[in-house]
Structures are given as structure tokens and as C-alpha cells.
Amino acid sequence: MLKLFFHHSRENRCSVNALAGAIENLPGVAAVFPKTPAEMEQALRTCGPGPCAAAFSFFTFQKEETAALVKKLRKAAPGAYFIAGGRTPAARRMRRWRWVSTTR
Fold first, then answer.
1. DSSP of the chain, one letter per residue?
2. Global pTM?
3. How far apart (Å, rounded) are the C-alpha atoms in residues 23 and 31?
4. Do residues 56 and 74 make contact, with C-beta atoms less than 8 angstroms apart?
């Protein structure tokens, strides 16, 4: 069972809500939607055995804030996968970010 922690920030509540129904119905995925960075960190600390992932949907103007949060969260859950994306005109530039890949 994959434990998926999808950051549900105030700024991105619409994109998360659009994905939540699909995510919650994926077989083999237990989804949680922490709303604050502190809740996200606490959730990731509960990963334990088995795969877990942190997911982020964000706008380009949030990239620095999101990068800082991911850096902090990697320390809380070094074995977690980190997935990020979003609908943005800068999407092509986002591919250069190695930390958004689905690899560890």
C-alpha cells in the first residue's frame, strides 16, 4: 500500500480538490491531505515500512517556497518519493528540477 501525502495548501486548494477524488479511488493508495507544512512533516514522519510519497501541486510563484519545504521534508522522510507539478506556463522549465522527479 502506497501512503500518499498530498500537500493541500490554501493557494492550491482548487487543484488538489480536482485531483482528490481520483487519488482517493486509486487501488493500493492511502491518501492523506495535510494542510500546513508542519502537518506535512508530521505525516511524513509516520511513513514507516512500505512506500510513501509526498505530492505537491503549485504555481510558479511558489517554487522557492516549495523547494525549501521539500528540502526540509527530505530530512524528515529520507526514503520518501517526492512528486511535484502543476499547470503553469513555466512547465518546461520545471523539468530541470531534479528534486521533483519520482526517483529517490
1. -EEEEE---GGGHHHHHHHHHHHHTSTTEEEE---SHHHHHHHHTT--SS-EEEEEE--GGGHHHHHHHHHHHHHH-TT-EEEEE---TTHHHHTT-GGGSS--
2. 0.72
3. 7
4. no
- Position 41 pLDDT exceeds 90: yes
Choose among 63, 72, 75: nearest CA to 100: 63
Q: What is the pLDDT of residues 59-100, one digit of tens each?
A: 778 888 888 999 999 988 888 999 887 665 454 554 444 444
Which domains occur in the chain, in start order?
2-100 (3.40.50.1450)
